[in-house]
Task: structure prediction
Amino acid sequence: MSKITSFLSSSSILLCVSLASGALAQQITGTPGSPSATTTIDGKQLPPEPPKFDGVIKEDAKDSKPYWPPSVVPPKGAPNVLLIMTDDQGYGVSGTFGGVIPTPSMDRIAKAGLRYTEFHSTALCSPTRAALITGRNHHSVGYGVIGEMSTGYPGYDSVIGPESATIGTILRDNGYATSWFGKNHNTPTYLYSAAGPFDQWPVGMGFQYFYGFMGGETDQWTPYLYRNTTQIFPWIGKPGYNLTTDMADEAISYMNGLNAAAPDTPFFLYYVPGGTHSPHQPKKEWIEKFKGKFDIGWEKMRDQIFANQKRLGVIPANTQLTPWPDSLPKWDSLSFVQKKLYAREAEVFAAYAAYTDNEIGRVIQAVEDMGKLDNTLIIYISGDNGTSAEGTLEGTPNQMTAYNGILKLPETELMLHYEDWGSEKTYPHMSVAWSWAFDTPFKWTKQVASHFGGTRQGMVISWPGHITDAGGIRTQFHHIIDIVPTILEAAGIQAPATVNGITQKPIEGVSMAYTFDKANANAPSKRDTQYFEMFANRGIYHDGWYACTTPPVPPWLLGTAKLPEINDYKWELYNIADDYSQYNDVADKNPDKLRELQALFLTEAGKYQVLPLDNSILPRIVTPRPSATAGRTVFTYSGENAGIPDGNAPSILNKDYTITAEVTVPKGGAEGMIVTLGGRFGGYALYLLNGKPVFVYNLLDLERYRWEAGVGGRDLFSDALKPGKHTIVFDFKYNGPGPGKGGTGVLTVDGKLVAAKTIPHTIPFLMAIDETFDIGSDTRTAVDDSYKLPFRFTGKIDKLMYKLGPEQMTNDEQKLIRHALERARD
Result:
């Protein structure tokens, strides 16, 4: 770098200063070397080479000249960016796109900007999110499926590699303040613990600040919450608390703090609340707003949404409403009690959607209150996939039952929670029939990538002064990967060639900024091809045509049905240029076009790491993956240690196990939690209550089994444990093989029997999602109502040991898993 020997007096002068490599150039604003000097980099290499010191160093400071490296800033005029996405909302949910649920915050952005009526997701949570933050297809960045089902193939390992830098990294290194609020479903499940590493956490992917929850979902009353990489615990519920409001409060506080400290620094805020993923848990006052609104039933509501969509112009006038499927009941076939229950489920879902939009509106209003709305690009996407069908045909007050293969509950069990549906006493989801209706006018739901019911999302964009057709509608075909290049073009920043010395995969999306100008309202789409795939349901779009497979089984069976071989799927064909809703299958009339698109799908699949195709669910859930606990059968702990993620805890599912606790009881006695995993909606706990040992097994809030003195065994411990050292053992013999079978548990103290009990069932697949493994106290929720949180152990835990037997599966299950793994390897 050539020497600059004199300072320039005007801070408005720009100087091009060549870097030593000669490959890049920096635009320096202000007096070079002064504390206020800034630079705009060309961004090909991130981070840029550090500038050389260009001052003067002599023996004496009086004869020397300081030189400050310029601060990196985005190009002049680069906007703030507020990127918003809700959860599990299909095209027919928001009022902005014809739904019956008011979404005034989304309306506000639509009126100031544009509505996009052919915008698409990947059909599932974390795959869509990985594509959104990288600008690359979900398989290209390891997210062919959710991380909980990851396998050891490049398209399915749930690792966003360093060759795929996120929008957070790109904008941060170009001078933006970057942050992430809400759901993080893009960190591998085996990296959730305090042990890290943290390169796959938001703060390791370019987001300087993170406040939110890990995984696909969390209880909104007692969330599994992190600030950066630190878990917020012990979590004890606060009166009136709900994460949806807390998230908005935190985002507003962050923006206000940033504005006070550095008002000229552009921000990129990624705002992704959990609404409306299960559990559906809005505040009660929002539920009251929708009382009676869904008594008309799902078919009439669907007709109403369809009429609204035509009136708003968000579907073409010639669109046909796809038929109601035979696999779902018609409203008039239901009993009075069923109608009452299902209407309540929809009221709670609608309340959650409206409540979420309201809190999003508070964040948008905060931007305006800071005086920054006129230079903020706002992108608001309604849902990361279609409406979820994971609530079973009936709905459930506890989603954990469905995740464990319990797809039908007694009507009395459902009605027991009618009044408190959505409260902290439930972890609810709604009937599949509502989900199908909320995806109007399309067929299918979340998880189904072959049809637009799983992938078509309402999306709005505003950018004052740059969008010249406020309130306009855009019909170009686009995909979630197109958001990153749109942001980069708006900011005047190019995608880097290298990041931290690593050559980058090309951005696979295309910018949508060409649609901003009114003159281009009807411009041809710049995306002419896009593949879709999830659980081997496939789709391929090309130049107005769309070929796709017919889903062989519905997603609401949650992997419990037998699936055909990959190559035995039936294919459909649609001319969506004339058939917006995929109503008319024209495969029989156009065999050559179908073959052409099938071949194109395989080409795209090979290009973007989609292979090997895999339609299995259970085998992928139990597939071994990297973990600090993988292969271990003995675990030893001491002292208090709460908040260990479920994935780092010893798993007692479907096997024999022995829990041994060596404790010291002080003078005056002891009580409190020794160890627990899970809480109100499923789990277990070993504790002292009034000084007496108790083991509780919570079978998904359906049944609780207790081992304690005088209950189910000989009453040898009618008195509390005396001061001194004691050994408490709970030994369980599992009645396998096969998942969810029962077994016999024996609780002893110092070798003497306290209680023995045989139970008919255990939790088969998933004991906890957002509850942790807690030693010495209990956080979030309790496994039963006999104690109050945090229920700290008042004695001393000298040693806690788990000894696990092998997981017991049937021969058929073992064959199924082996076959799936071998097929995937082939």
Remarks:
- The CA atoms of residues 220 and 243 lie 5 Å apart.
- The chain has three domains: 14-72, 80-523, 634-811.
- The first helix runs from residue 104 to 112.
- The chain is about 20% helix and 25% strand.
